[in-house]
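GP183 protein: structure, please.
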Amino acid sequence: LKYAKGICVFVWFLVFSQTFPLLIQSMSHEENERTTCMEYPNFEKIDHLPFILLAACLIGYLIPLGIILFCYSQISCKLFQTAKENPLTEKSGINKKAINTIIFVIIVFIICFTPYHVAIIQHMIKKLQQEPLCAEKKIFQKSLHYTVFLMNFNCCLDPFIYFFACKGYKRTVLKILRRQVSVSISSAARSHHEESSRDAGETQMTVLAKSSNGKLLEK
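Here you go.
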């Protein structure tokens, strides 16, 4: 915890340094009367592209994966040690839940991020050895569409991980959902009441109009 703030600042600075070059250059490209955005061929003009992407995979995937595996393995060992020293902790099931969460986080990370980086690494190594064939480039480009989707899908899975792993987060989400449901119900009840009042008013006006017409006919 002593160095946590400094480490977080360093990591965010590293991520920003990696993504900043993408922010200062155009991502779109006109091709055969259509505009493409962030497609791999748009980046092939960059000098030393294989070295840049391999370095990005090392810094952005391999090193973080190693850190995650090391840290979570240390946490798991500590949890096992605590369970041995204190049987009550093991009976409560807290350690088991924490270990299951760790395993789930690692599996999700590997499934979501590995295919994209494996595709990049193998294609860049091949590109350094010899220029890939046109068919290989097309396969690589198509694989990026699916692997980038899978990588971004991780953002959708993270809230569910936090929901089931963290009681505080779970309580906050449920409170927001209950508040939203109560607002929706009260809004629906209010609109129903207003509609009923309007219908009653229209009915009353119709009755009054009919009675007025009846009196005029009698005269």
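Notes: The helical segments are 4-23, 49-85, 87-92, 94-129, 134-165, 167-218.
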